[in-house]
Amino acid sequence: MIENWLVKVNVGDVKLFENALYNSITKTNDVTGTTSAKGPNTKQTELWGCDEYLKLLVDYIKNIQNDNISKINFNNIKSLSAWIVEGQEHSYHILHRHSAKGDEHLVFNNNISTVLYLDIPKSGGEFYFVKEKSTGTQTHSIEPEKGDLLIFPWSLYHGVYPQGPGLRKSVNVDFSF
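Predicted structure:
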């Protein structure tokens, strides 16, 4: 059994990350309604390019002191997909885990997901996740703050509880290594 983990750090001022992201996007595609993001006020956009952001993010992650992060082979890290989720009141994400299209039943050992919160709502919108370990299963939730970066393996089931008023905006990237 794979033991799941989640690392949470705060990057501080998100402006550096936002500037890198918006300066390097080459193409977008609205995929609203076809993903785990749900609710009447939810928008999800696939991103291409983002090279400046991806480099900044990987360089930041490399410097995190954590046993799980130290297992990542940064020499072979490759971005698989990137997207932005924008949610307003009543937006949420159903329980899911990341995978290659059509491979939802497989567990990938060499893949990580990242979520960077650029904005958070006034209430609600907690990130929840299920840690599966050899000793059992535990459900957890995190009330994110602006600038929080979550890093976890693809095998971690997770979602977002319905949020209250205000904008929840995150940039998400999946990597293989």
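Summary: The chain is about 15% helix and 45% strand.
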